[in-house]
Amino acid sequence: MYQSSTLLRMLKWLAVIAAMCFALFPIFWMVSTSFKPIQEWSTYPPVWIPRQPTLENYLALLNPAALAGSHSIDYKVAETAWRPLLNSLIISTSATFFSVCFGTLAAYGVSRYKSGGESYPMFVLTVRMFPPIAVAVPMLVMYSFLHLTGTYVGLVLAYTAFTLPLSIWMIRSFIDEIPREIEEAAVVYGLSSIRAFWRVTFPLIRGALVATALFIYILNWSEFLFALSLTNGALTTVTVQVSNYFSASSGQLYGPQAALGTLSTIPVIFFGYLIQRHLVRGLTFGAIKR
Amino acid sequence: MEGLTKRFGRTVAIADVSFQVGDGELFTVVGPTNAGKTTTLRTIAGLETPDGGTVFINDRPMNAVHSSRRKVSLMFQNLALFPHLSGFENIAFPLRNARMRREEIQRRVEEIADLLRIGHLLDRLPRTYSGGEQQRVALARALAPTSEVLLLDEPLSNLDAHIRTSLRAELKRLHREFGRTIVYVTHDQVEAMSLSDRIAVLREGRMQQIGTPEEIYERPANRFVATFIGSPPINFVPAAVVEDAGGVWLTNAWLKLRAPAHLAPALRQHPRDSVLVAVRPEDITVTPLATGDRVGDLTVYAVEPLGAKTIVDVKTPDGNIKAIVRRSWEGRPNMPVTVGVDERRIHVLREGDEEFLPSGPDRAAPVQTTSAG
Amino acid sequence: MATKLVLRGIRKEFGSTVAVDDLTLSVEEGEFLSLLGPSGCGKSTTLAIIAGFEAPTRGDVIVDGRRINDVPAQERGIGLVFQDYAIFTRMSVFENLSFGLRVRGLGRVAIEERVGRVASLLHLTEALQRPSVSLNMSELQRVALGRVLVLEPPLLLLDEPLSNLDAAIRLTLRTELRRLQQELRQTVVYVTHDQIEAMSMSDRIAVMDAGRILQIGSPMEIFDCPQSRFVATFIGDPPINILPASLTTVGGHVVVRHGGLAVAFNGAQAQAALTGQVEMAFRPTDVVVRRDSSSRAAFEMVVDLVEPLGSETVVHLRAMDTAIRAVVPPAFAPRVGERVGVSIPAERVHLIDAASGIVVR
What we know:
The structure holds three protein chains of three kinds.
Chain A: H1 2-34, H2 56-62, H3 82-113, H4 120-125, H5 133-146, H6 152-177, H7 180-188, H8 193-221, H9 225-229, H10 238-244, E1 246-247, E2 251-252, H11 254-274
Antiparallel strand pairs in A: 1-2
Chain B: E1 4-7, E2 15-19, E3 26-30, H1 37-45, E4 56-57, E5 60-61, E6 72-75, H2 87-97, H3 102-115, H4 131-143, E7 149-153, H5 161-178, E8 181-186, H6 189-195, E9 198-203, E10 206-211, H7 213-218, H8 223-228, E11 235-244, E12 247-251, E13 256-258, H9 264-268, E14 274-279, E15 284-288, E16 299-305, E17 309-316, E18 319-326, E19 337-341, E20 347-350
Parallel strand pairs in B: 3-8, 3-9, 6-7, 7-8
Antiparallel strand pairs in B: 1-2, 4-5, 9-10, 11-12, 11-14, 12-13, 14-20, 15-19, 16-17, 17-18
Chain C: E1 3-14, E2 17-28, E3 32-36, H1 43-51, E4 58-63, E5 66-67, E6 79-81, H2 93-103, H3 108-121, H4 137-149, E7 156-159, H5 167-184, E8 188-192, H6 195-201, E9 204-209, E10 212-217, H7 219-224, H8 229-234, E11 241-250, E12 253-258, E13 261-266, E14 278-282, E15 288-290, E16 299-308, E17 313-319, E18 322-328, E19 339-343, E20 350-353
Helix pairs in contact in C: 2-3, 2-4
């Protein structure tokens, strides 16, 4: 009895470790590659840990001019990666902000007043039901007509529109969990409906909003298709920049690509770490009798 | 102070309900589930818009007045405390919105907390409270503002029996001390009886009867009210109206009652009709038959001791009836018995009718018995 | 009468908490025994141990003289009905009732006979062919009960089977359940927190608190002769009056006094060994309330609160720091502020040792 349960526990742990290795391997590989010199990028057998760790890849990103004489990397990208990083930051942050803002307002209406009718939430979701490539071309035409191509406004609009359904759905489920009597109590005790939302409901869903924002932020940050097609090369985001590290002689420049990947992961992880205490659920406990 | 009529279009939650609540009165709306009690309360609070009718507070029509300006307090059935606010902030919430001065708020909250003995809860969040504590804080929040009407929706539900009994008395005492106007909603007829100045019995959105607890219990308007109020519920015994030289009688195979003075005139109008005699369990006496007596149709079905009193279920040819007997009553299941009914206390309705036959003013008061032995 | 079930020295620990502590109990064949106590007192855990869902940390579960600790739940043949009855809604009443018998492979004739008998006892005969979805709450709970009863279990365990029902239905089902149990001579262990249910249905009640049985006895024994403050308080509604009191001896009589409220016992009645703090306890129904407060034996109190309940009226009485509840007939019609005379018959007063909470008289 005792032995079999110990064995079972060990097997469980093994399974968990295996799953973690599987999930984390690409990240390990990316970080590892970002420190490898060009010879170690794609050799066989593969090099797991860089034998001659170098910061050259990062230098290629951030200060390509310094590498001009060395020729160890045949880089064709003269620009630094600072600009794309800044572009991504501006676009993703504003698009996330708008998506969560409008999402909250819409979700509140849907949850409390059934705005748009019973089938409205499903209808909203249809935006996510066809592949983005299907709308990319029509949007490109529309954008050039409206002179939105290659502008911040254009990308922010596109990102907001495409993440809004997810925002609405996620936030709606959180608002649904807040008993409406709590808001009604605030109204009976002297607040207008809008202030009741702001003073009572908003503090209760704040954590959930932050979680939604993180989720949306990651989507925006890693978006590639629109960033490529709606910019005409005039505006480069991180994801597009990664694909720019390419040279005729060496093919894919895995090192700088991995380095930019690593760099662009750091803010998201940092952001996630900062808000993790907000990701706790069960805030409404104790509000009502069950 | 109020006179309101409300009609609800779509699902007819309440249909043409009117009542007036006097200043300082504790008025209870009682009824089974789906009677429309909560809807009535929410309409008074302005959280529902009536499809017809008007809500008046202090003779002023309220239909166009927003909830936040009606000066009502509502204690929700699920309490709806603000989970992110401390006990103090919960209670102070209505006061802050009324722009009360800071020191005034402090004083008022402490006063209310003292009264409800929740001083130790003020600094804590609602999630740390027990069920009874949540209830008290919600009540304190409702009591804190100087509202015109206090609306309480099942404030004592989901509590242990003993806590409920003592909170019930506490609430009644509070009401007496404060003299606030209270509209109280409950499904528990015991609560309604024990607390109220007056009771309104509601069923499926329709008003059945309004009266003092004594009126409702002693002179129920119809079959539903008679059954709903009182536990164990009133018994209905089928009988026929027979008139002979001796007077008017109500008889069936096992019971013969002389029609009491308060009913005789009405019963004379319906000779030979089938009627139902309604009699409260405490107005029935059950006597075991001595051995050797003729074995009748009536036997004991079950005996349920409750401590201070005992409920006896008697099996009759017309179904079971329940009687409340003294605690020392000796009887076992299947034992033959005879049954006596205090005919001065009965109500009669014609078979198929819902309303009782009119009874004269001389119906007997409850029988005086010694309270303890 | 044979002994059906014995629990001997049962102890159940969940981690560091003790849910059931040294519980010993025996149930006779055909007996209706209630485990009564507040939530968390260990009554449901005890039931789960009898059923076999929980293994006791210590102690024996014995049914029909056989120790069944190691017999898995499904082989114990014990019937169980819970608060949340799970009825197969797609089946008719008959199919629901016969389900267990069909699983056991009984013949059609035998099944129909047994289902028919149980259905008639539960007043379900007319409903047999109806689909379960059309049943009301009372009928559903009776089907849940019937489904277990047709299996003729040697022992039936009921865990608050009435607590989800309306008050009126609860009242009738209570009577029906007791009647049925007596007719079938079914051994029942019934778990409830509702003292009225326990009082009205049981042959014996075991009052539990904090994992222990405090007292076992017939309903009237428990009501009239509680052995501890807990039992005295838990049983009875409105709850028993308990007042701190002092003891003095006056000429062969022991006088128990709380403020102006005094009860005299003759020497034999009171325990001479009593020292320390005592409390006097008496039921609201035992308080004698009179209109004339002048009588010398009576203590004058003021009516503080009146709660009419229809068939009786609860009055809260007050004098200085003394507050008690009394039950009077509605015809007494007390008015708030009225002065009344109060006396309490000595034979109805319990004395409780304040420190230990044990009833000493």
